[in-house]
Amino acid sequence: MLIIAALFVYWGGYVQYWESTKSQNLYYAACGAALAAIVLLYVISLTRHWGSRSRQKMRARAAAYRKIAHVAAENGAELPDFYPHYGPYPFAAAFHADAAELEMPDEAGTR
What we know:
The protein contains three helices and no strands. The protein has helices spanning 2-15, 21-50, 53-74. Helix 1 packs antiparallel against helix 2.
């Protein structure tokens, strides 16, 4: 998709030398449609990822576990070196007890 966007930009540099306004308008309409499609696909993927109550539940749990681990480490507990730390979790949603558990793939990559 990015290659197509780059081709549109390159072609836009070429099209500005066209004398036909019809060809230029057609180019601009195609660029606008491609940009709208990219934005639409991005918004759909965001809503699927961030709107899932199961994922929100998982993020809320991860944020709570991280807080517990930080408090433990600040009070002298020794955490393993491999303990994951991703910094602040600003998008941790509220915990939804009624949400289904998120199915995570096992170590082999299958469900």
